[in-house]
Amino acid sequence: MKIIHCADLHIDCKFKNLSKEKRESKRFQLLQNFVALVDYAEKNEVNAILLCGDIFDNKNVLKKSLKVLQDTILGHKNIKFFYINGNHDENVEIFDREVSNFYAFGKDFSKVNLGDVCIGGISFHRQFPISLTHQLVFEKEKFNILLLHGSMIDDQYCEAFKMKSFADRNIDYVALGHIHNKSEGKIDKRGIWAYSGCLEAVDFGSVGKEFGFYELEIKEDKFFKKFVPFSEINFQVVELNVSGVETNDQLFKNVQDALAGFAKKDIVKLVLTGRKKEYTELNFGYVAEKYKNTFFNFELEDKTKTVFDMKKYASEKLSLKAEFINMVMAEQNLSDEEKEKICNVGIEVLKGEDISL
């Protein structure tokens, strides 16, 4: 038997940091991921798909999104779907009627037998009932899977559950949702737990991580597991220090090198850092405009700090800037580094510029 374990699709995620057009495109792409996942299952003769919560981003599901999900499930009668609610899609119903190849676990533990494999689950609880572990009754002879959505560490959404409380319950695999990064570990000598993570990256906190699902195979009393990468659009953040860059030609070459290797489908944020001289006219706006259509989405964040010519300002006559700088420089209780920082901030204030504290 082949089984796919996935979670946290976050269909209908709003992606507020994107433009309206790109926001819609990205949202449709998350929905397409589900269809592509089921197509993969069909081609690879997968028997069941475990949907471990947060399939939707919120409980107010768009009707057109729900319809795609329903039609995809109904169109693949040979695949059984098992669904638990997460904290984002808490109380969402995918079907309001009984469907032969779809089973939704409720707030109370229940289980379904598929020959030698037993799949049990319980939908999301902000505080898992103390009695939960006592409800987990699995037959020793079967391969037993438990679906849960939550965390092993307390967070703002729910109280943590203790994985050790599932030991010695004849559980072979705990299929988890909620944490967006894949991870795994042991329950006891018999069983393991795993977070599949998201199918697709949904924010810049996902940079450098791998996204997809777990494919399980139970064959002749043996268990095989592999992670299948599935993400098409990745979030990328790159920092570029422009200290010492004095011409736009040099800036453009450095940016080009920094962005090399990113795919056209990526969502890219370029963060410019470092110290630039006051009269160095580096055209960051040109960079933002040049690359806005190179990737799925591009944004530039300017975190550079301006370095002022203190000797020039200190030598000005009848100048508040000169008075301020000379007063700071005469202060004996400040280090040279502190004096420079205070002078820079003071010049910014006196020039009416943004303060770079």
Chain-wise SSE layout:
Elements: E1 2-6, H1 20-43, E2 48-52, H2 63-74, E3 80-84, E4 102-104, E5 110-114, E6 117-121, H3 132-135, E7 143-149, E8 173-177, E9 183-186, E10 192-195, E11 212-219, E12 222-229, E13 235-241, H4 248-259, E14 267-273, E15 275-277, H5 284-291, E16 297-302, E17 305-307, H6 310-314, H7 320-329, H8 336-351
Parallel strand pairs: 1-2, 2-3, 3-4, 6-7, 7-8, 8-10, 13-14, 14-16, 15-17
Antiparallel strand pairs: 1-11, 5-6, 9-10, 11-12
Helix pairs in contact: 1-2, 7-8
Can you give a write-up of this model?
There is one protein chain. The protein has helices at residues 20-43, 63-74, 132-135, 248-259, 284-291, 310-314, 320-329, 336-351, and strands at 2-6, 48-52, 80-84, 102-104, 110-114, 117-121, 143-149, 173-177, 183-186, 192-195, 212-219, 222-229, 235-241, 267-273, 275-277, 297-302, 305-307. With 357 residues, it is an alpha/beta fold. The chain has three domains: 2-229, Purple Acid Phosphatase, chain A, domain 2 (4-Layer Sandwich), CATH 3.60.21.10; 234-307, no CATH class; 308-357, no CATH class. The longest helix is centred in the N-terminal third of the chain and has 24 residues, at 20-43.
